[in-house]
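Q: Structure tokens for this one, please.
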Amino acid sequence: MDNLYKMVEKFVVDSFVSRGMAGDLVYLQDTAVQLKRIYPEADEILLSAAVARDIERCFRQPDVQKIKVERGLLDEEFLTLHQNRGAEIIKNFLESQKVDPLVIDRITDLIANHEVGGDKEKDLLKDADCLSFFEKNIDHFLKVVVLELGFDKVKEKFDWMYSRITTPEAKGITKPLYEEAIKKLLTTSH
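A: Here is the predicted structure, written as tokens:
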């Protein structure tokens, strides 16, 4: 298991690069960094889930894309499909690599709940995702997503990403980043 993180990260990197989505990697890889920042005790399984949590984006099916465009990034069906399909993709990959089924179960459970949390590890993963979002993904939303989904849906996403943070440490680190993101969005869009 010592190489689990490296194996999962390589799968994620290769998947995104091969689909012309290499620009997404900074945000994906940074979530593991932010997880270590707010929870230095994070083990390799939790870190592997952090780097792989959004793998579904790389293999997005038309039904999920349609929901995203029509109903937005916070639609319950969109979030459920995003989480569950990502978990299934990682499960299939890890099974093909003959990873211990107990490890696979834990990683897939974390990924299947990374948007909603639910226990200490899932909440930490969710919080690291939010922190990384504000540190590494805001410019993409201001330049690309706002054109695709509009000001209101992007503002809603920013508000939601900040409001769902559970741990006080992550909330404190993220607050100035959130405030700056809102300021930039208002300046960019008006």
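A few notes: The radius of gyration is 16 Å. The chain has a mean pLDDT of 92.
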